[in-house]
Amino acid sequence: MSRARHLARKRAVQALYMWELTGGDVSDIESQFLVEHDMKNVDLKYFKELLHQVPAKVEELDEHISPLLDRPFSELDPVECAIMRLGVYEFQHRIDIPYRVVINEAVELAKIFGAEEGHKYVNSILDKVAKKLRSVEINARKSSSRQ
Fold first, then answer.
1. Fewer CB within a 10 Å sphere, N or C end of the chain?
2. Does domain 3-146 have CATH number 1.10.940.10?
3. CA-to-CA distance for 136 and 28, rounded, in angstroms?
4. For the whole model, what pTM was predicted?
């Protein structure tokens, strides 16, 4: 796992959280982050992709998450919501990133930013989404581990 990518995800979760809470313009949030946060070792291209693409595709991402929730979206922790959306975005649009990396990164981010047991909820939801969106990858992995 690239440290620069990890830092990009970390900053993107913070920026997406801000977007969720304020409804602010994504470009303004990006500018604010570039000025106010240490972005020295961050994969800036990836940070910008996540920050712009997750809100642009939010309805599509939420369609994969909603049926798996045990509560309304409005009752989700906003940080955990941002992390799950980021994970689903990576499942769908960044197939170059293995599903296990997506889940591991999301769990780590939930441990840092989420509620005390939030990482377990994030893991559970993303695991189910992965089975749907990355079934070919998961089945290939299972069959190669049996040999």
1. C
2. yes
3. 38
4. 0.94
